[in-house]
Amino acid sequence: MKNINRFLAVLMILTFVVSCACMKDKNTVSGKVVTVEFGKDGYTAKINTDKNEVYLALISIVNVGGPQNYKQLKEGDEVSLKGEIWKTETENHIKVKEIVSVK
Predict the structure, then answer these.
(1) Helical H runs in the chain?
(2) Cβ atoms of residues 101 and 80 within 8 Å
(3) What are the domain boundaries of the chain?
(4) What phi and psi, each to the nearest 5 degrees, are found at residue 34?
(5) Model's pTM, two decimal places?
(6) Average of pLDDT values for 40-59?
(7) Residue 89 DSSP code
(8) 29: β partners
(9) What values do phi and psi take at 67, rounded to 5?
(10) Domain 28-102: which topology?
């Protein structure tokens, strides 16, 4: 019985580690900025990915960790963003936690 419990514990830990490693890539969006709409606390950038997916990226000073991490994107910029992704019936969204790169 102890061996089964140990085996199940190791199996659960391995499952957790693998699932966390797989989630890293799912929280990144890369593509070209199509439009930028300014709001009260930041802006929303519309991003077209290489797979022809469209994401609405919510970018604010608070969400990226302060003014030192905040960058203003422009139309035509090639970007890579990390954050929380969710989908509605018709749109993909990302609440940006890190602006990885801007070209």
Answers:
(1) 2-26
(2) yes
(3) 28-102
(4) -95, -45
(5) 0.74
(6) 96
(7) S
(8) 81
(9) -65, -25
(10) OB fold (Dihydrolipoamide Acetyltransferase, E2P) (2.40.50)
